[in-house]
Specification:
With 81 residues, the chain is an alpha+beta fold. The chain has one domain. Helix content is 27%, strand content 21%. It is globular, with a radius of gyration of 12 Å. The termini are close together.
Length: 81
Amino acid sequence: MHVPETEMGPWTPARFPSSAARDRFLNAVAGLQITEVEGAVMPNEARAALVRWRPGHFLGLNDIAYSLGGRILVDMSKRHA
């Protein structure tokens, strides 16, 4: 499935070592172009967030998560053409 560049991908979980790290991640995401990436607190998960992005913006978002000890959990079993 090809996601057009004008559409956001699906919401994807991101896990962090603490709620403080998650909050720093969400603050960093909020400072980015809101039209390119979005982040939100994952309900009932103190150390997780939900993120989605337009094509071409994953690596920057992943770098932010990784720098805070987090990881974005992309399902690699689904192939996007």
